[in-house]
């Protein structure tokens, strides 16, 4: 991955590079590019009230000390906080509030990040091994090209915005709450002819995270993690 992003949240200017927005470390067959985020400032371990709507209470009897709810942020202390009508919890405080997501996404600049794919295939029965850096794909070409299904179908450098568009998804929608795109490198080769004709084809598939505007049935929209 290559690309630099910039955000200014509450007067805090930040420049993001590959080590900040790509997870996990590069080299795996899958990776995550951060496009949006929520920061809960100055968290520390302590006791604080849950968010409104979580662990609701009217008295201490509603907050069983030592127990917790799967959707909550920590272990209940047995105290009902009257100012919020929620149970007090032992947790990272203040608790994270993810009910409001930054919109538009904070790192829309990720649309212009580029991805360099190295891929290979082996046909052991025929003793053939091919790389997607086929004939004519040298350092000089890679330094200038950008994948296009018609104009540059063999270029191994892909713009993220183009990958999402070719998958049929909207980058802005995907960047808001996350999602997944599948990249398929198809090696369908006729080895009865010269091996130079064995070339890859790239296909992109939107897996999830870009529901229709009328879709209200999704159990879990997007992809996100803490």
Automatic annotation (TrEMBL):
It catalyses: Ca(2+)(in) = Ca(2+)(out). It comes from the Eukaryota. Gene3D superfamilies: atp-gated p2x4 ion channel domain (2.60.490.10). Keywords: Cell membrane, Disulfide bond, Glycoprotein, Ion channel, Ion transport, Ligand-gated ion channel, Membrane, Transmembrane, Transmembrane helix, Transport. It is a multi-pass membrane protein. It holds the Pfam family P2X_receptor. It is found in: Cell membrane. InterPro entries: P2X_extracellular_dom_sf, P2X_purnocptor, P2X_receptor, P2X_RECEPTOR_CS. The keyword Nucleotide-binding does not apply. Belongs to the P2X receptor family. PANTHER family: P2X PURINOCEPTOR, P2X PURINOCEPTOR 1. This is ATP receptor.
């Amino acid at each position: 991955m290559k690309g630099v992003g910039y955000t200014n949240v509450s007067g805090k200017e930040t420049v993001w590079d590959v080590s900040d927005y790509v997870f996990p470390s590069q080299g795996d067959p899958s990776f995550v590019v951060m496009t949006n985020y929520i920061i809960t400032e100055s968290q520390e371990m302590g006791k604080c009230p849950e968010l409104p709507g979580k662990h609701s209470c009217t008295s201490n009897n509603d907050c069983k000390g030592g127990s917790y709810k799967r959707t909550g942020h920590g272990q209940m202390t047995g105290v009902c906080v009257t100012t919020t009508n929620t149970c007090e919890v032992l947790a990272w405080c203040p608790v994270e509030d993810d009910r409001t997501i930054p919109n538009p996404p904070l790192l829309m600049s990720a649309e212009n990040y580029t991805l360099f794919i190295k891929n290979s295939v082996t046909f052991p029965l025929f003793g053939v091994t091919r790389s997607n850096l086929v004939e004519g794909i040298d350092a000089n070409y890679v330094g200038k090209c950008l994948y296009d299904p018609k104009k540059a179908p063999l270029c191994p450098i892909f713009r993220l915005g183009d990958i999402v568009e070719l998958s049929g998804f909207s980058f802005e929608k995907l960047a808001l709450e996350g999602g997944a795109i599948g990249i398929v490198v198809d090696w369908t080769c006729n080895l009865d002819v010269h091996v130079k004709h064995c070339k890859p084809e790239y296909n992109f598939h939107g897996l999830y995270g870009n529901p229709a505007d009328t879709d209200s049935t999704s159990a879990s929209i997007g992809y996100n993690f803490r």
